[in-house]
Amino acid sequence: MANSNPIKQQTSQLDPQIYTDLKSLRLMKYKATGFDFLPPQPVNSLLTGRHVSKLRGRGLNFEEMRHYQIGDDIRTMDWKVTMRTGKPHVKIFSEERERNVYLLVDQRTNMFFGSTGKMKSVIAAEIAALIAWKVTDSTDRVGAIIYNDTTAVPIAPQRSANHVLKILNEIVIKNQQLTVGKAKDSQGNSFAQLFHQAKRLVKHDALVILITDGYGYREQSEEQIKTLCKHNDVVLCHVTDPLEHNLAKLDKMVLSDGNLQLAVTHNQAQTKERFADDVTQALENFANMAKKYRVPVIEINTLQPADQQLRKALGA
């Protein structure tokens, strides 16, 4: 009887730079240290400073009203009750034990690229795994939307190791379905599907972490992004390959849509420059959106280990 499991068999034979697997993402649990997405942030953290939005943290729940005691924070004084009773009273709050964190993980065909290091799709999977393990270890709930060229799979937030494995398994399925012959002209539609699912799944006061290269972003999605940023904290992990920033400097290149290839040499400078400009413009459009809505951007490359990049970006 044929095995219907969509995950590629014999994962030990997969090139870890091209595809990821569940074992690799499970091991990320032991590297998920030295960084955090919640306040307080280290001084050198990208999430600290006046140029980015300050994350909300878990929030506070009102617990009780009691008499003032020496050492209480004067800012917690309830002046109305104090005036009414003639005795100083303070409000006692407790930090919310759990917060919802959502990972929006890009596994589209455009992520199936890497010039010298790992594929962008693999790095995105590893970043998602690191954050998922860290979130669960911090007693918060983690959910996800894993999307490719045609579908966006929502997973409601929970807090357990088994739930993290469920998320990682879905990422692996999408990751191992990627091939160079499956290019889709649907990048804009896939972003629209992503934000449609996000609108249904994500409510208020959550932390939303978008892990993507940003290709295919359309202005039609801006209103959905605006709403998402208005009610939640949004962080962008922007995954790019070094080659994407240096296309104009290449003497020659081979372009492909996943089915056909086109060699471009130094004699075709106009074609090369136009392609490089298109790639640059796509990167700039996404960066401008993030800047407009004060979304902190963590730049992730395909050369350095994912865990080291998170620690460096978050000040550890």
UniProtKB/TrEMBL annotation:
Xref: Gene3D superfamilies: von Willebrand factor, type A domain
Domain DUF58: from-to ranges: 64-281
Pfam families on file: DUF58
Residue ranges of the TM segments: none
Signal peptide boundaries: none
Highest taxon in the source lineage: Bacteria
Protein name, per record: DUF58 domain-containing protein
Taxonomic lineage: Bacteria, Pseudomonadati, Pseudomonadota, Gammaproteobacteria, Vibrionales
